[in-house]
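re: that chain from earlier
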Amino acid sequence: MKNINHFNKRFQKVLIATACITSAGCTEALDKAPDGQISMAEIFADNFRTGAFLNTAYKNIPGYANTFWFATRGPVVVSDEAWDCDDFEYYSGMGPSMYNGQVSSDSYPMTELIGSGGAASSGRYYSRFYESIRFCNFFLERIDEANVSNREDKNRWTAEAHLLRAWYYMELLRWYGTGVPLIEHSIDNDIEAYSDMKKPSYLEVVELILTDCEFALKTTELPWRITSGSQAYRVTKALAEAIKSRVILYAASPLYNDGQNLWERAYRINMNALQNLRNNGYSLYSTVATPSIFQNDEQHPGNSAHLPNRYAALLNEYFSNNQQFAANPSDKETIYTSKGEVSGPIWNIEGIGIQGNYKCGGVPTQEMVDAYETTNGEPILDLAIPYLDEQHTIPNYNRNNHLYDPGNPYVNRDPRFYASVYYNGSKRTAHWSIGETPECLDNYVAGREIPGYRTRIISTWAGEPQTGIHNSFREQTRTGYYLRKFIAPNSGDNNASINTPHEKIFRLGEIILNCAEAAAEANHLDSAAILVNQIRARVDMPLLDVPNTLSKEALILRVRQERRVEMAFEGHRYFDVRRWQTPKGDLSATDKWVTAMEITRNTDGSGNFTGYTYTRRPVRPTERMCYTNRFLKAPFTRDEAAKLLSLTGENWQNEGW
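^ sequence. v structure.
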């Protein structure tokens, strides 16, 4: 079967990388190109080549971040977090295709148009992941007899192959949401592959993932942290714990649990993972390392990040910097980071589009902005019923929140809001490729008609010609907001060194919130509150009070909201809103409509500014068409589903496709 990519005896020669990933390591080992074809016997008879063969299992690790079609942030712009501003210029792209419902089992962009730099030619997740699973299986079957120079390398490589296989299977479950072909050994042909195969349950695949992770955790030679750049991007025990944490949380969720109550098990596995990570040096990022850039205080009054407090500075710094590979890094939170496959600067593909006169990519929705609490710790909206109409234009305000002002909506907000979103009236200091014109009312100064390095007010009101809300220009926001979370201050075409932070694929903050969710669902309410409060305390948000003011149901809503805010724009929300549904559910409450904030700049009869009027409206006048039941899971291709049915006698296709 072509898509399964299993090993055929008539192709007993493979392409392998020339670089080693032995214990000594080689710089950028995972990026080396193949040099030719040699036999499998020759590969495993040689220490160097055996290590190089393992490189092939690394090559399909998903890039996340901007590696989706045309350098978009993938799931982020197909959730209720953000809107893809390529919706007009590239209406056949990933985001617009999903919005318009112009997808099928043979053309499903979420799992199809992905890869290095977003290149469509890189193939589909399904085939790429099984290709790497094949390499892992083949490696594991031969490593015991391989001619490896020392036992330490052999043990570490074996653990890495188990862990990589676990990761690829986890990704298959994450996207397809159902039992997938469970192949634990190399195979020769279609009949052999499927003659005795039965469709496994979701949980059966999870059990293999957990077993592979446990193997890795029991391997002494596998480290907890990568401490040298020459070993960068190799997998670790910390990654094994992170995979366990995420995969069991998903398995316990309503969409996948087949009616079983797995929350207590998810709680125990997550708490154990969290404790092991902390015991081995992982902790939340808690200190601003470069206050002269990020922090606005008495010691650093002239910083150019324009952040209101050190808590916003902390998170903005964390997400706009890369992981350090050192024994004692300042960033002890990041568990695994992407390799940064996107070519080109991030500020120029998903920042403020007019800065480079290019595009702004995914822009935050009003729904996402509504999720950030006020500084008194109260949600803006009623979390159970946040909107009173289908289109989300009538907010159902939280009656206990007396601090939020709809007429001045961006004051007194959670520091994570300021760290993550550019809003009307915020500022950015950078090199701008455009000059101001008299129509740029908030920024125009005579003599600034040419490009230059300066501070600009980010004015998003309707009619502002450069950064204002616009219905079709890809340089300008569709929603009244721009993404800030991963955009380093000052980055621009004159400051290339801080342009492209790598995606933090796994971090301790996620593990803590995984624990909190499982704890709340398993009725460990005190534990859940303690865990959520660890995340809130980092940004000085008021702590949740359990059980005096929060029931189990209310606490679950707060945990989910905390995930939404803490992990905003990191790709989690897309999967969260799906796994929280039942198999017969849909996404009509979250993904059918998303809204913008249309801002009117008011003046008096003399033309003097008098204030703003804020009006919620749908981003576009028609609903998005990616909310129905079938969009809870990705489809197998038509050919793959037909082959699976023919060879096993079972229907593997997800419902609706």
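The longest strand covers residues 609-618.
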